[in-house]
Amino acid sequence: MFKAIVIDDEVYAREELIQLLNETGEVEIVASCQNAIEGLKQIHALKPDVIFLDIQMPQITGLELLSMLDPEKMPQVVFVTAYDEYALKAFEDNAIDYLLKPVAPSRLEKTLKRLHSSVITRDFTSVTSAQLELVPCAGYNRVLLIKPQDIEMAYSDQCGVHVVSNESLKGGNKMSCSLSLKVLEEKTPLIRCHRQYLINPTTIREIKLLENSLAEIITCNGAVAPVSRRYLKALKDRFALS
Q: Tens digits of per-residue pLDDT, 143-155?
């Protein structure tokens, strides 16, 4: 039996699909989410086998959500969409499975057979964007959507991944992020300066060289990030430092 999460902002479409999935006896619905931000959190927390993902959702679309997931830890994905025939051709050409709303039980049965045979590819690069337009963060008792260029630094600790922006520095609070450092490095302008730190090169005010081939970065708004030996040379080369 597959563990599944259904993510769709349309409540009736979501409930109808859940009912159809329950009737198959092959799927356990572990979460039902009304937007991509909630879905992202549940995917990380519950690690489903498959997600049934609506494409057209407000703020963050289904395709943008997919861009935020680590490809190496990606569950199987079935898009649920009302897209037109032209848009669906991209899915068909790349062997990406989808269900067209309203979902027909016979078409759902075909999808479940594909899931069982592991035919569905996990390479979604053909339909997802190379760069993120927004990074969802939690802070100030609300969810914030931060533009990547406004992030000064990101780092990880035992509590997870945190993002530092001009707004967070003024507020004196941490902003947590559901994305991994790997995804942030690959999908935003942030560059690696330490195993646990990423930095926005456009916000660097000072690179302070320390002993033992170490360094630290100070951003325009006073945030501090360590630089390890492994990444110091690349940082010096980037800024033509001797």
A: 889 999 999 999 9
- HSE at residue 109, side-chain half, CA atoms within 13 A, is 5
Instruction: Please give the CATH number for the structural domain made up of 135-238.
Output: 2.40.50.1020
Cα torsion 182, 39, 110, 28: sign: positive
**What helix, strand, coil percent values describe the chain, rounded to 5?**
35, 30, 35
How many other CB atoms are found less than 10 A from the CB of residue 146?
21
* Structure tokens that stand for 48 in this block: 């489903």
Residue % of the chain over a pLDDT of 70 = 89
Determine the Cα–Cα distance for residues 130 and 142; give it in Å rounded to an integer: 27
Nearest to 1 by CA among 48, 64, 43, 41: 48
- Letter for the amino acid at 87? A
Please give the pLDDT value at position 121.
Answer: 55
Tell whether the torsion through CA atoms of 86, 88, 91 and 92 is positive or negative: negative
Does the domain made of 2-117 have the CATH classification 3.30.70.3340?
A: no
pLDDT at 109 over 90: yes
Q: What is the DSSP string of 161-226?
A: EEEEEHHHHHHT--EEESS-HHHHHHHSS-EEEETTEEE-GGGEEEEEE-STT-EEEEETTS-EEE
